[in-house]
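pasting for ref. prot 1 ->
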Amino acid sequence: EASQMSASPSEELLKQWESEQDRLRQRLLEEDTEAWQRDRNFSGLERVAGVDLSYIKGDHVNACAQLVVLSYPQLEVVYEDSQMVALTAPYLAGFLAFRESSALLERLQRLEHNQPHLLPQVVFVDGNGLLHHREFGLACHLGVLSGLPCVGVAKNLLQVQGVHKGEEHRAQVAALKKAGDSFPLTAASGRVLGKALRSSDNSSKPVYVSVGHKISVDTAVRLTHSCCRYRVPEPIRQ
């Protein structure tokens, strides 16, 4: 009988993913763990990476997983890996990481295996970290699984937990006068989930920076700004 049917596959999957997310969240570090992070000029930081997954319009299976590593502070590309991948997991809102993280993690593992001396000391993720429905976005997921410091940088504001694009937000954005200026994105709970950063003098549109793993929000913002030639930080832009 219909009444005896089990939960739909997506409900089952959701439960499974939620518990996996909770398990991984236990390992999340939201503070500076590396010596270079505490240095005013990030002395000791030599390699920064950017990862992204690009989709083909109208195709929800095939995507291009990309990893670039740049020298720091020069921001010149020293390594590039682009790979077409077939995504197997469905997209469920709030669970993007279950769809995208393994393809990105594979790129990092391949680099570590082939050219370990180029392994990045921090990874910029085109997406969110703590700024997420359950405070565990793609940048957190990838950070915990890779063990590398990660920063989420999004071009659009994910409106979660009482963080929204109202009048107040617009006024705060307008008040960001120069590159490097930022303001906190505070959840209804009072927790700072990330910061809006004016990353370039030439663009009044901010980027939204949040902690992925092994970095504090203030360091993440300062580092993001230091990696910007334009609005989008160079590791992600490349």
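and prot 2 ->
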Amino acid sequence: MRSTYLLVSHGSRDPRPQVALENLAQLLSQKLPTLGNSGASGVPTVGTATLELGPAPLHEQICHFAEHTLSLGLTEVQILPIFLLPGVHVAEDIPAEVEIAQKTLSPKLKIELLPHLGTQEAGLAKLVKTQMQEVAFLPNLQLPKWILLSHGSRRLGGNSTVEEIASKVGAHPAYWSVKPSLEERIDSLVRDGQQQIGIVPYFLFNGGITDAIAQKVEQLKQQFPTAELHLANPLGVSVELADLIGELIQK
């Protein structure tokens, strides 16, 4: 196999998302040999990089990883954007950084930019459903209504994936940065007489935003005392998530 693999995330000042990304890279390393993709040492090389808040600009991180790739006798780097939404980072920022890196690198090495993780709608819907099933609701009350809470994108069509997944899992979409907000969704459900409401964060890993969401839910519990609000976990690192990335490599 000629390729190594570089997982690119947004980046955060909170260390937890980076730790999770590295754990995901390790899981992917363990999965790839079963797909017939092995590096020179018999185990695929999977690295991590960040678009923002990294040790260097993304194109420099790509170049450094590419040099390592060449040292292994391999000639291709496949870049996998670990993003759920097709926003400006996926559509513009990462491709621009990849282009800069490719111009800098030896023509012997090829960089292939793969589709972002959010294109795996069916698999992501299954992961969301799993997070929903882990929430225990109080007995003897009406069936819960669910809200799928995403960061949200102002880009035209940027939230279509969220709406599609929400439809697949029977949830109402809401957004952290655009409307309809979590508070607006809850208010609408409570006005309809709903007593139990589940909230599943459509985020990959725990971090600053998921902490803020948890704090917001505690405030909303006081604001809507007639409703039972239950917060699920974000998707998190799992073998199933690594499998979805492996499928992107195989396509």
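Strands lie at 3-9, 46-50, 76-81, 110-113, 145-150, 171-175, 196-201, 228-231.
Residues 34-40 have pLDDT under 50 and may be disordered.
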